[in-house]
Design brief:
Elements: H1 3-6, E1 9-13, E2 16-19, H2 23-30, H3 43-57, H4 73-89, H5 96-117
Helix pairs in contact: 3-4, 3-5, 4-5
């Protein structure tokens, strides 16, 4: 396999080429062996990811890598607002399950935020 087949090439300047990092390069540097399975990427896993981030910022869940609960309400609000924008922009385009998931998570996070804010 040639170098070009392993990754892709960015050409910012026609006279200059930069090879990007391949998935294999990134996984070996991050300690990901490729044997581990990540969850399927879909709308639900994306929403759960944002939910997890918001819970960390609300201080409800330990921050990965630190094993400490740290509260950052500004970042929590920003993540909740992102979920709100997603709900607004995807209205009418989600399955019933996706819509219910998003509404439920958004409601719960908003209630937790109000409780933590006061």
């Amino acid at each position: 396999m040639s170098d070009e087949e392993k990754g892709f090439v960015l050409k910012d300047n026609p006279d200059e080429e930069k090879k990007t990092e391949t998935a294999a390069d990134a996984s070996s540097e991050s300690g990901f062996s490729g044997e581990e399975q990540l969850p399927e990427i879909n709308f639900a896993t994306f929403i759960f990811s944002l939910n997890s981030s918001a819970l960390v910022h609300l201080g409800m869940v330990e921050e990965p890598g630190t094993d400490k609960k740290m509260k950052n309400l500004l970042l929590a609000k920003q993540t909740i607002d992102i979920l709100g924008i997603l709900a607004e922009k995807t209205k009418g385009n989600l399955t019933d399950d996706e819509d219910n998931l998003l509404k439920s998570i958004l409601h719960d996070l908003r209630m937790m935020y109000v409780k933590e804010k006061s």
